[in-house]
User: Fold this.
Amino acid sequence: MSRHLAIDLGASSGRVALGTLEDGRLSTRILHRFPNGGVQVQGRLYWDVLGLWREVLHGLKLAAETGEPISSVGVNSWAVDYALLGAQGDLMGGGVRHYRDPRTAGQMERAFEKVGRDEIYARTGIQFLPFNTAYQWLAEDPQTLRSAHTALMVPDLLHFWLCGVAVTEQTNASTTQLYDPGVGDWSAALLHGLGLPTQLFPKIVPPGTVLGPLSPEVEALTGLRGVQVIAPATHDTASAVAAVPASGPGWAYISSGTWSLVGTETARPVINADTLRHNLTNEAGVGGTTRLLKNIMGLWMVQECCRLWGVTDYAALYAEAARVPSGAVIDPDDARFLAPFDMQAQVQAACRETGQAEPATRPEVVRVILDSLAHKVAAALHILEEVSGQAIHTVHVVGGGSQIALLNGLIADASGRTVIAGPVEATLEGNLLVQAAALGLLEAGQVREVVQRSVDLKTFLPSALSSPVHSEVS
Ligand code: LFR
Assistant:
């Protein structure tokens, strides 16, 4: 039997969980859950990383208080964001900027002038999103960059604070659009072409790298002893996909949360004119795999409505949305939905501008969002099938969004495919099992079998009356 701790930082909440691996099964207990979100000040949007650190320490203290022997701990989070550190390891530039901060406006276009769009894609295989790390870097104050010593992605920063080792883990490095999967390292050509300071980028390590023991300071603050810090797949989507309970060919996944990440797993990156045309991404996964996927705006749209409405009971809201009929379908990937503001007004405007009925009530607004996400997912699945030449018959939905029966059913109907929902905590499970594999307690190839044995899944079949969507919603 072995015990491991996973720290999962999501865009809307974080958690510290204790996983126990026994007889080939994993049980997971959440010890501490805390909210997360952007902090706006003077038109800038940040993450409260020090607040997150305080919560992490609290969670680790609770872990120590269980009195159970714990072998290791690892952190995962959302992707693309980073901290700049000074020569003494101090946090610079006001902390960690949020990827939805407006500073990236126009930066992608600047990058295309310096290097060229096709070359960026050919070298990285990463989809063009305005907030990719590469474009955030271009928005940095040159003065700050000159005095910076190291740049660390968010989970790498937490690992550094936990054990003093400063490296970049590969799955998250790939999301920067500065990582070249062909060479397995930062792309020197891109860093050079974009005029970025190469000395700030640390060594890249693969998921499942043992970094070292907790620092004496963290041991003293938490009461934990003898715990190794292990870099799991630090990108949350990579951890979630590692734990998709699939077997055999013909499946796709949706990591359903703040974003809907829709994709397949491939043995190597697929970088060609079709994937470029469809803006498909090739993110690094566990065991040298690639996540060929598309980002779809996801439940962020509902989260933002709820923030505005002061609603916290999501289950009740989804139940009401299930009772209203389908209405308008809009493109959730319209850039108008990216930044935090009045999401309800934006959804209504998008319906109006496309000549469709505007949703009036809250359940109607949510219904438009869910119907639109389901249609967009169906279109993405169609693209993935086309590009890979592989039929997709089953869609595994993992993550918090897999609990929304209405959305699962809408996806089954819109795509005409079987949806298997669960696990809800795939990210935590992927994180924990990659740690166990790093310690030799499990074969890396057994992670999915352990998840299959450990969780309950729900199946949603397309209804006989549904008509699958085959074209891209735009
Ligand atoms: C999901 C996720 C996505 C990434 C987005 C921004 O939490 O990590 O994979 O595109 O957040 O970092």
